Amino acid sequence: MVRHYGKDKANKIAKTAKKNSQNIKDMFRRRSAEQAAPVAAAAAAAAEEANDVEHESMNEPIDDGGGGGGGDGGGDDGAGEANDGDTDGGYGEQNWAPHVLQLSNHFKDRVSQSVQMSGRGQNRHPTGKFPADLSGVLAPSDDPLSFPAFAGKKISYLEFCYPNFFIWYPEAQWPMFYENQHYRPVCKWHGTHECCVNDGWMTNPRHAYCMGKEVAIIGRKYECTIRREEGKKCHFRGIDKKVIEQSPDYVRLQWNRNGCDFSHCSGISNKTLELSVGCLIGGMSASAFQHVMLQNAKKGHLLQSALYRSWAQGQKSNLIYSSDDITQLKRQLPEYESKECQYNAPSVAYLISRQILRMESTDEDKKRRMQMIDGQHLSSDHSFKVMRFTCPRGKPFTAVFCLLNEFSQVVGWWMTTGTSLKELDEQFQMLRRRYEMHGFDGPESATTDRCCQERAMWNKFLRPSDDEPANNPHLQPDDTMEINVVAAPYKAKIARNTDMAILLVGEISEYLTAQPLDQQVIIVDGEWQIGRSKMDLLSIGLLSGRTFIFHVAQICRRGAAFPLALKMLLEDSNVRKIGNRICSDIAKLVGWGVKLEPTVELGHLAKARGLSPTKNPSVEYLCERLFPGVVIEGKDSSLPGPRLSNWGDEILTSVQLSYAETDAYVTAMLYKETMRHMDPRLEGRIPLTDANDGLVVVLYMRSFKKVAEGVIRGTPNRNKILVEIDLATDATLFCKSAMVDVVNEDDGSIEKKSIDSLCSSRNHDANLIKVRWDLSFCRRKFDLIGGDPVQLHTRTKTVLIEEDSGDEGELREARYDADDEDEENTGGHGHGNESNASESDGENDTRRRLPHNRRRRLHHYRKEKVKNDILHIFLRHQRVLSKEHGAYYSYMTALRDALFILNDEDLEECLVVLRDKRGMNDEQIRNMMTHNFKWFLLRVRRLVPPPPDLVKRYLEVFNAFKDIVCHKSGKKLFGSAAAIAQHKATLKHIRRNCLSDIPFCSYYTPLKRDRDGLRRWACHRGTSANEGLHQKLRQLVRGFSNSPRFLKAIISEYLLMWNQNIDVKTRGLSSKYYGLYDVQLLEDEIEKLSAFLDEPVHTEWVSSKSLQCTGESFGIINPTHALRQVAIDSDADDDEVDRMADAAAGDLSDDEVDVGVEALIKMPPSSRWLAKLTGRYRPAERVRSNDEWEYFKENLGRFQGGGSSEADNYSGIRWSDFAACWNNWVDTLGHSKPTVTYKSSSHLQDAYKSMKRRAVEKATLRPHAQAVRELSAAHTNRATAASYLPEFPQPEVAEVAHPFVDAMETEDQQAPYDGDSEHVRENDDAARRQKTNRRHRCRKCGQEFAHANWREYHHIETRVVNGNTLRDNTSKVWDSCTVPEEFYAPGFPCIEGRMPKRKR
C-alpha cells in the first residue's frame, strides 16, 4: 500500500526527521497512543512468529522510509522506498560508523567526478567513464595496505574494520544499454524512462548481510515527475526490485550476481541467500547456517584483528608514525560488538523470511515443471510424520500426500487436512486434465496401501479401460464374438439447474400436447446412491426415443426447492408415468415432496400379456424376451459399473450419463413393444358362434395365466368346448403344472390330471389328448394386435467367448469380491494345462504360448487397475506374528516365494554368474537367496500371478505353517485372533485382485548392467518409493519448528531437485543438467537464444514455457486469493498511513494491513499467510473454547459409522466429513463467536482423544473424589508451605570459571616444591573433598581473587616461558597485599594453617 499525503507535508516530515537525527519511521512511532496500538499488535505478532522461526516479509512496498542503511530502506520490492528528503541513520536502529560514511562519500565523489553527467532531458549523457577500480564488490579491509583509497593515508585500526562496498550506478557503468533511455532507468510505477529524473546519490549506504562481512550498497535516487505533479509519493531508488526487474538483461544479471535481496529493515546478498537455500535443501537447518555465518563473522573479526596486530607490531617510528603513535596503535583493538566492527550475521527469523521469499519467487516455474511429469503406473501414500514437524501451535494440516510415477518422480503433492481422498477430488480431475492436454498416455494403474477404500476415487482418475477385446493384441480371433448392445439414437439433454430444468419440461410438454390424450405417456426412471432417501437423478423418456436427464442432486443443492414445473409434470393426472419397478422411484420422489401419479408398472403389463412369469421382471429379462440377442450394458450387478456409483457427484461421468440415457430409452421401447401384444383380460374373446371346429386357441387359467395351446374339436356345449392338445410339442405347453379335465374318447368320461403327469405317462404313439375347457378362458391365437414393429437402436460390441465347460470349476475374477473364507473350496482349483505351449508354432509369442481359456481370463483381470502394495502385506504380517516364533522367518520366506514368481531367464543368468565367477555351490546360493534376497531383487524380474493361482499358492503356505507350535513359547504361529484376521484380510485382497499384476503390463525398466554384466531392473510396483521420499522429507524438515508457508516452500524446492535428478539418472536427460536447478534462468536463455540461432540450444530440455498451464496447484489444496488488493492510488487518511508505517516495523506486508482484514493482524504471520491463501480469516487451531466443545459434543454422533475410508482412523468416525461440516459452520458465523476457529481432522481427533481421556479419568476417580480433594487441600496449604520458607537457600549467580594461576603452568615448567606441607596438604584435601565453592582468597586480607578491585591491591610477579606469560611462583601473592587492615576479613591474616570458613 502506498502513502497518500501531499508532497509539502511529506517534505515537512522528512526535514523534521533530519533535523532531529531521526528517520521517518521513528517519527511515526512517536505519534499518539491511539496510533501506537497497532504497533503493539504487530510487534506481538512478530514476536510470536519468531518463536515459530519465521518472519513474514513484505511482498509490496510500504513507504515508511525506514530501515536500511541511512533510512533508505523500505518495502520488500527491493531496496525500500525513498522519502522526499533522504535522512541520515543506519540500518534498523543502528547507524553506520562515521569512517564508513566517510569512505562512502569518497566513492560517490570519485564516481561523480569521473562520470560527470551532462545535459538535461534527451540530451543527458555521461562525459566520462566509470572508474574501473570501483567496479564489482570492493573489500577495503581485506588488504588495506594496498587499497587505492588508502594510499598515502595514515592507516589506523579503522582501515581494518570496513565492510564491503558495492556501487550500483548501471547507467554509468554500462552506458551502452541506456542510450535509448537517455541514460536513465525506467520508472518503477510507470515502466518508462520519460517521467524519470535524477535526484542524486542515496544519502547513506544500504545495509546487507553477507558471508563473513556486511555489505554497504551505494546507489542512486530518482524522482517520478508524474507522481510529483499529482502530489503523491514520487521518489525511488535504482536498487528497488521493480526497477531491477525492468532493467536490461545484462544489468539485471549483474545485480543477480553481485546484488542483494532487501527487506524494509535490512538485506542479504544474493550469493549468500542462494547458498543458504542450497544448504537448506541439503539438510542444513536455517539456524545451523546462521551459526555458520556467525562463526565466519567472528572468525573474520579475529583474522582482521590478527592482521592489524601483526601490522602494528611491525611498524617502526618514521616520518608518518612516531613512537607514541606506534604505542597507541598497538593498544587499539576494536571489540566485536563495537560500532566500528562491521562483522555480523542475521537472525534466524530474518534469514528464514528471506529464504521463503527466495524460494517462492520461482513457484510458478516449479509448478510448471511438475505439470510436465507423466506416468503410467502411479503410487500414492500419506505421510503423517512429516506434519509432526510443522506448526505445533496451529497444526492446520494432517498429512502430506505424494503421488509418484513409476520412475519415483513426484507427479503431485498436497498437504491435506484429512486422511481420505475426498478433498483431493478436484486435484485428481485437474491431473486427469493434464494427461489430456499434454497428450500423455495413461495412467494405467495405481498402487496404494488402502486399495479397497480408495478404489472408487482412483477409478475416476485412471484412464478409461481400453481393454476391449477387439483392441487387445493378446487375444486370438477365436476368443471373441460380436453382440448387439442397446444404444440410444439421440443424445440425452441434461439439466443441472432450475432454469435448464424448466426449459426441458417445456420441450417435454410440447411433445405431449401434440399427442392424443390416451398416448400422453412418459417414461420415469431414477438413480440414487445406496443409502440415500432421495432420488439423485431423474431420467424421463418419450416414446419418440428422446431422453431427458434431470440431475436433481445438483438442482436442489444447498437447500434449493424442487423445480415446480417438473413437479407439476410428474403430478399431472393426464400424463401416465411408465416405469419398471416404479414403486422405488415413487418412494424416492416422496423425499423431494413429489407425489408421482398416475403410474403404470411395466412388469404388470408384461405379466398380463404373458411376457413375464412375474409382475416385477428385470429390464434385461424383458429385453431378451422382446428383442432376442440384444444386451443392455451396465446391468451386471456382479461387476463394478455405473449402477452402484455415486449419482450425487457434482459432475457425472460419461459412463453414468450413458447408462441413465440407455435405461430410459430401452424402457420406452419395451413399453411400445409390450403394448403391441394382446392383453387376454381385455382382448381376444371368442364369441360362441365363432367357436368352430379347427380354430386354434390358447387356454388360460382363471388368473389368466397361459396353460397350453390347442385346436377346438366339435361344437360348444353350454359354453364348454373340447380342445385337442399335442403333448409332444413343448412349445405349446406353457404351464405343465396346471390341472386339466381330460376327456376319455371311449366312454366320454372326464378325469382331472396335470399336464406334467400326462406327459410322463403318455404313449409315444398317442401324443394327442382332448380336454374340456371354459370358452370364457379361451383366446384366439395371436399375440400382436397391430402396429408397426418397434425398431430398437443397437450397436455391435466385441466380447469374450465364454469359457469351455472343462474349466467350470475355475474361479473367475468377477467372483473374488465375495468374502468366502472356506479354504477347502478354493484350494483345489486348476486353471488350464500349461503343456499346451508345446503346440506353439515355434514363435516366441506370449499370445500363442497361453491356452485360449487362460488368455480370456487374463483379459478379465486387466480391468482391475487399483492395486495394493505387496510390501504392506509383509509389514502387516510382521505386526501380528511373533518374531520369536521358531517358524516366523521361514514363513516370511515361504510367503515371499508364494507371492512372487521369478523370471527364469534372469534367474538363470544370476546363477551362472554366482557359480562361474564367484565359485558358489548350490547350498551357498540357497542361503544367499534366503538371507540376501536384495541382491536378486535388482537383477531378477518378478511376477505376481493371477488370483486363482495366488489363492492356491497362498493357502498352501498358510496351511503348512498355521499350526506349527514354537518349542520356546508353546504357541502356534497363527494362534492369535489378530493373526487370523490378517490372514482373512490377505485372502480377501487376493480374491479381489488387489495384489496380482495387470496381465501383459510391464512393471520394469532396464538400468545399466553391473560389473558382472547382469542387467539391473527398476521395479514400478508398490509404494516403496513413496516411503523413501517421505523419509527424505522428514530428514529435510526434522529439527525445524516450521510454519505451513516455510514447509510448502522448502518441499517445493526439494521436489524440483528430486524430479530433475531422476530425469538425469533414469529417464535419459543429459548429465550436464544434474545439479542445475535454476529453471527460470535456463529457460530464459533458451527462449532468447532461439530468436537468432539457427540451431536450437538445449535440445534435450523441454521448456515449460512452450506448454500450456494446466491450472494445477500443489502444496495447498485449492488456494484462493480472497483478500482484495488495495489499489496504489486508493485514498487513505493520514492516521491510516501512520498505522501502516508502524505496522511495517513488524514485518507486515502491505496487503496484509488492509482496512478490511484487521482480524488477520492478531494472528502470527504464518497463519495470516495461510488465511490469505485459503480465504479464511480465522486460524486453524485445536478445540479450546466452550462454544467449540459444545458444538463438538452435539455433532460427534452424526459422523459415527458409515464406513470411514480415512487412512489414520481407528475410531470409526468420519473425521474428514466432520471437519468439513465444522468449517462450513465457521463460515456462517461471520464476525460472531471470535473464539471459534477452523479445524482439521487432526484437531478433531485430538479433541476426541482428550474427551475420552477425561471421561475415563472422571469415571475412575468418581468413587475417590472426596479423598482426592482433601489430599490436595492438605498438600497445597499455604500456611504449611510458609513454615518451609527459611529453608530456601540464597541462589548463586552463574559465573565463568576462573582457574587458579598455578594451574596455568605448562608441563615443561612445573612449580617448585613448596616446603609448606601443611598448605599443600590443605589444597590436596580441598581438591579431594570436591568443595562447591572454589573461589581463592588472599591469606593476608582474606579477599577473594574474583573481587573487582583485586589487582589494585595485589601485585603478581610474572615471567615469560616459551612465549607464554606465567606466574612467578618464587614469591607469594600475599607478600604484595596492600589492603588496609580495617578491610581484613574476620580471622585474617592467616599465613599458615587452615583458613577460616566463609560466612553465608
Question: What are the SSEs and their pairings?
Answer:
Elements: H1 7-19, H2 24-29, H3 33-51, H4 98-115, E1 117-118, E2 125-126, E3 137-138, E4 164-167, H5 170-173, E5 196-201, E6 206-208, E7 215-218, E8 220-224, H6 225-230, E9 235-237, H7 241-245, H8 249-258, E10 260-262, E11 267-269, H9 270-281, H10 286-313, H11 323-331, H12 348-360, H13 363-371, E12 377-383, E13 399-404, E14 410-416, H14 425-438, E15 445-448, H15 451-461, E16 480-486, E17 493-495, H16 498-513, E18 521-527, E19 537-541, E20 547-550, H17 552-555, H18 564-570, E21 576-579, H19 582-590, E22 599-601, H20 602-608, H21 619-626, E23 630-631, H22 654-675, E24 696-700, E25 706-717, E26 720-726, E27 739-743, E28 750-754, H23 755-761, E29 768-774, E30 778-780, E31 794-800, H24 823-826, H25 846-849, H26 852-861, E32 866-868, H27 870-880, H28 888-899, E33 901-902, H29 904-916, H30 922-931, H31 933-937, E34 942-943, H32 947-961, H33 977-991, E35 1004-1009, E36 1015-1019, H34 1024-1037, H35 1044-1065, H36 1079-1089, E37 1115-1116, H37 1134-1144, H38 1165-1174, H39 1186-1195, H40 1215-1227, H41 1241-1261, H42 1265-1275, H43 1278-1282, ...
Parallel strand pairs: 4-7, 12-15, 14-37, 15-32, 16-23, 17-20, 18-21, 21-22
Antiparallel strand pairs: 1-2, 3-4, 5-8, 6-7, 8-9, 10-11, 12-13, 13-14, 16-31, 18-19, 19-20, 24-25, 24-30, 25-26, 26-29, 27-28, 27-29, 33-34, 35-36, 38-39
Helix pairs in contact: 3-37, 9-12, 12-35, 13-35, 14-15, 16-18, 21-22, 27-33, 28-32, 32-33, 40-41
